[in-house]
Amino acid sequence: MNLHTKLQQRAANNKPIRIGLIGAGKFGSMYLAQIPRTPGVHLVAIADLSPSAARANLARVGWNTAATQAQSAYEAIKTGATWITDDWQAVVSCPQIDIIVECTGNPVAAVNHILGAFAYGKHVVNVTVEADAFCGPLLARKAAEKSLVYSLAFGDQPALICELVDWARTCGFPVVAAGRGHKWLPHFAQSTPDTVWGYYGLTPEQAARGGLNPKMFNSFLDGSKPSIESTAVSNATGLGVPSNGLLYPPASVEDIPFVTRPISEGGVLERKGMVEVISSLEKDGRAIPYDIRMGVWVTVEAETDYIKNCFEEYNAHTDPSGRYFTLYKRWHLIGLEVGVSVASVALRGEPTGVATGWNADVVATAKKDLKVGELLDGEGGYTVWGKLLPAANSQALRGEGGLPLGLAHNVKVIRPVAQGQSLTWADVAIDTSTRAYQVRREMESLFKAAL
Description:
This protein is of the alpha/beta class and 451 residues long. The protein is built from 17 helices and 15 strands. The model has no long low-confidence stretch (mean pLDDT 96).
């Protein structure tokens, strides 16, 4: 609770946390909007494939353009300005930078950036949770081997869920379930960038005003992002995942503790200790009043009558039995909150969520019948969506191993795949030369025996 005080001390001592940002898109821009308002931090450099687009986004969020005219990291450090470049390697190799915030949203590129940062002794806050979903456990191990901190990004829902889980366990509560909300109906799994705004609840004009990427937002809608984020939470907390994908039970905030109980007690869970996502729509499409669509939650259990009675005495939000209590945060502010991760990593040496094992995986699953020769277009596109599976089930898929969604972009199909079928490595011709592919295979080799 004293991160702000510590940041003020860094500012007073003229020893700011020095940050390098890779990727200045929507998420990165939200973080950029907060940096001038945060004491004790200095954004030394931004690496983006399009420096002109990065400058436009800085102007959009209100930065003084004079503060972005540094011609090198050295000049930026000397003057307190920010250097903008398209050379990410120059940013991660800058000796004075403390933390790299990886914010590209491109999982293959993110792996390169993260490993590059580790090579130069940099801590990493990884906003690109898609990369964490397919190789986060190994990235966490590689960071620890170098005494570095690798962290999920606060503001994004996985880190907020991890915070709630940690709160519960620190208080002595067993966690029955934890997760996020989502606007979900089963046919959304076939949504494409052409249909996303109508389903999502935005007009094309609103989307254009916000600079919103239809493919990215479709990855939320079609179930890919909820699966990716649930994977990150499972791997960070040890909570289990449903054996055949997320169930998306519909529930109001009031009903979360009712549905997030084991099946044997009237809920939807296979067992206690699971991740799940709550839908804000009834199965017939009706909107649920007071939903958790944009929020996160954790359900805990009173293990004694005394604790149960305390729930009752303090009007805690429980199921009808009084034993299951849900604490929730109804909103998350995405990139506006990333500063909490930066401060936690730099000032406490603590991540805001990090993989501790390999429990869950996200497998590319066909949105339509896929023909030989078709190119997969990855998360949020026209060809595949991401299905959450236990890592053991993914590895055993048809005896060939599931194809991780994060590597299902620009990959050619080499045998037919039916709509709804999850793909395996053998269904595609994949580029085995990428660092991301190699890291994933290394993780499978190292962690498979423990599944």
